């Protein structure tokens, strides 16, 4: 008697067709991160933004800027018992990337400016687009107590789109393919025929053998019982073989949604294999991809402090160059006066030296009246 088990009878459309009710996965920002490329995208965005050095400046009346200490709101995050500035930024980045909106509650204020802001979980806040009113834990709150950083906002709306919910069909296909490959959930078993040439089994006996075999295979162990058994693993049909590539394809699609390099989350480079010649080019590509998230966070942070003060996330700190290139570039900047010796030594994490604050400003090559751009 032959026993046929596995999931070969499942159509490919069951995994990808969003109208299939029997196998459709309900995709939410809470379960989407269980798909590896989604988790990788969120991790990449949160890790990059939360580990950047933060600098604070004050803009002068003439437009010049002066570096200052971190404003109280951000400095206090480093006190014992607080989450730390990096983690605080990471929470905001996660809200934007996972839900399309980071929403914070202003816990305390001083002279009209927040001194403590706590980011809220998605189930803790609400917003009614019609009345334009916010709620926290079901209770109405004034908008002045809310800090809101949206992702992409459609015209006429206040809330940003949720990237996961907006492209749920792509994530759903990836989750379904992941289920297919999970033998612990009865997935991943190829179609197979288990045949006993010595005896005929009743329906109950056949079901018992089938269940024992499936359980054994799901545990990763071979099925062994009796004698005269022949196990034949049937080839996966072409439509099911496509599932092997589904996770990789979804990684590329998810990367395009988040605007990051697919190789950061396990996908393939668009247009084939692309390699970078230097570590600096890798860092530059990554920084360019992350720029929209960084700008959104910086602008939101600037709105929480006095008008002439502003925050900048130091992306330059992520650039890595080889020793020869770094030495050449820094040497040129010292030569033309863009850096002092001590500023250059700070970049190299070295102590300042006496007289190292001097800037070597080259003498002009022509009289002021004849230089280009000089007043007549």
Describe this structure in words.
The protein has 376 residues and is α+β, with helices and mostly antiparallel strands. The chain has 2 domains: 1-191 and 234-320, 3-Layer(aba) Sandwich (Cytidine Deaminase, domain 2); 323-364, no CATH class. It is built from 12 helices and 12 strands. The chain has a 3-stranded antiparallel sheet, with helices on one face. Strands 3-2-12 form a 3-stranded antiparallel sheet. Strands 5-4-9 form a 3-stranded antiparallel sheet. Helix 2 runs antiparallel to helix 4, helix 2 (36-50) packs parallel to helix 9 (243-258) and helix 6 packs antiparallel against helix 9. It is extended, with a radius of gyration of 30 Å. It starts with a strand and ends in a 29-residue tail after the last helix. Residues 1-23, 183-188 and 234-244 have low confidence and may be disordered.
């Amino acid at each position: 008697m032959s026993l046929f088990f596995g999931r070969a009878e499942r159509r490919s459309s069951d995994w990808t067709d969003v109208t299939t009710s029997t196998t459709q996965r309900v995709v939410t920002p809470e379960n989407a991160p269980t798909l590896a490329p989604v988790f990788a995208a969120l991790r990449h965005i949160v890790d990059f933004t939360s580990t950047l050095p933060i600098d604070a400046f004050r803009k002068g009346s003439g437009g010049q800027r002066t570096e200052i200490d971190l404003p109280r709101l951000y400095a206090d995050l480093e006190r014992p018992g607080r989450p730390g500035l990096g983690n605080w930024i990471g929470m905001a980045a996660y809200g934007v990337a996972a839900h399309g909106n980071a929403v914070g509650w202003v816990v305390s204020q001083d002279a009209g400016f927040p001194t403590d802001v706590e980011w809220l979980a998605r189930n803790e806040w609400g917003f009614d687009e019609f009345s334009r009113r916010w709620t926290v834990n079901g209770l109405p709150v004034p908008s002045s107590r809310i800090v809101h950083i949206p992702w992409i906002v459609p015209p006429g709306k206040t809330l940003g789109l949720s990237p996961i919910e907006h492209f749920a069909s792509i994530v759903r296909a990836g989750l379904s393919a992941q289920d297919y490959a999970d033998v612990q959930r009865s997935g991943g078993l190829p179609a197979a025929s288990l045949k006993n040439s010595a005896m005929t089994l009743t329906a109950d006996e056949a079901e018992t053998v089938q269940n024992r075999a499936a359980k054994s295979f799901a545990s990763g162990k071979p099925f062994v019982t009796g004698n005269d058994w022949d196990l034949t693993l049937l080839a996966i049909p072409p439509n099911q073989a496509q599932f092997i590539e589904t996770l990789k394809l979804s990684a590329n699609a998810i990367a395009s949604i988040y605007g990051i390099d697919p190789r950061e989350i396990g996908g393939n480079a668009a247009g084939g294999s692309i390699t970078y010649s230097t570590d600096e080019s890798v860092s530059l590509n990554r920084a360019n991809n992350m720029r929209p998230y960084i700008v959104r966070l910086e602008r939101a942070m600037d709105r929480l402090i006095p008008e002439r003060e502003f925050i900048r996330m130091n992306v330059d700190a992520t650039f890595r160059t080889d020793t020869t290139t770094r030495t050449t570039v820094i040497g040129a900047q010292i030569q033309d006066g863009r850096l002092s010796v001590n500023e250059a030594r700070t970049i190299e994490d070295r102590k300042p030296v006496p007289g190292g604050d001097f800037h070597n400003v080259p003498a002009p090559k022509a009289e002021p009246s004849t230089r280009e751009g000089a007043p007549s």
